[in-house]
Specification:
mainly alpha; 12 helices; MetI-like fold; two-stranded antiparallel ribbon
Length: 277
């Protein structure tokens, strides 16, 4: 065996654990899920091939699916730009060399390590119109009567977005890592050329941060379409009505006959909505 073949063999040997994990835990379940979407399957009995029937029903008979898809798109279009802008702004702020900056970094990152369930319960109290902190403060300062943020369909979506922006710490730290990889020589050259802070950000920071921004953009879109826990706790359990239908998971209404949900072809709700009546 040649040296090149021996190196290739060792390379495959070293990457084999990753290949095994990818095939078993990622690619395999994805292919199995794709196959099962064309079948009638209730876990107990063997899958029965029904072709495009599930997809036909999803796009033609399920009103909640289209609604949940549009709400999810709206949620993503509002949440993702806000998370990127706020995360980048915080990262640039904590990247400055100032006193007590470590304490400031911890304070900005701390909300992101709070479990989502605990954060959602905290948000319920914070936005409570009678017992919460925000509404009495607004009434005391401005005299304006604020809405019930979680029950009003015009504000419920933005209340969930605000919770996501509050937990922007992970995105901020990724941006901070990207900022610290930018060579200082570029900023010094820009200063010599007479660039001010805004011009340095426009001509140095943003171009050099493009890969990091793109990464956070992709991750943000994925997270938006996977949103479930906060909406489930805040919207369904608290308000008792469907202010939000996100493209994530379909649950039977409380007290409904769960036997109707045994087979995928008998679903009364969309497999892409989180909806309680």
């Amino acid at each position: 065996m040649t040296n090149r073949g021996r190196e290739a063999l060792w390379g495959l040997l070293f990457v084999s654990p990753w290949i095994f994990g990818f095939v078993v835990f990622s690619a395999g379940p994805m292919i199995a899920s794709l196959y099962l979407s064309f079948t009638e399957y209730n876990v107990v009995q063997a899958p029965m091939w029904i072709g495009w029937e599930n997809y036909e029903r999803l796009f033609t008979s399920d009103r909640l699916y289209i609604k949940s898809l549009w709400v999810t798109l709206e949620y993503s279009m509002v949440r993702v730009p806000l998370v990127i802008v706020v995360g980048l702004a915080f990262a640039m702020l904590i990247n400055a060399r100032l006193r007590f900056m470590s304490l400031f970094r911890v304070s900005l990152y701390l909300p992101s390590v709070v479990p989502l369930v605990a954060a959602s319960v905290l948000w319920l109290w914070f936005l409570n119109p009678q017992l919460g902190f925000l509404n009495p403060l607004i009434r005391e300062v401005t005299g304006w009567s604020p809405p019930n943020w979680l029950r009003d369909p015009d504000f419920a979506l933005y209340a969930i977005v605000a919770l996501s922006v509050w937990q922007v710490g992970h995105t901020m730290m990724i941006f901070l890592a990207g900022l610290q990889e930018i060579p200082r020589d570029l900023y010094e050259a820009a200063e010599i050329d007479g660039c001010g802070p805004i011009q340095r950000m426009r001509h140095v920071t943003l171009p050099m941060m493009t890969p990091t921004i793109y990464f956070n953009l992709i991750i943000g879109v994925i997270q938006s379409f996977q949103a479930f826990a906060a909406v489930f706790i805040i919207d369904a359990r608290r308000t008792g009505q469907r202010n939000l239908d996100l493209c994530r998971l379909s649950l039977p209404a409380p007290g409904s006959n769960t036997s109707k949900w045994a087979m995928p072809r008998r679903w009364r709700r969309s497999s892409c909505s989180r909806s309680w009546r």
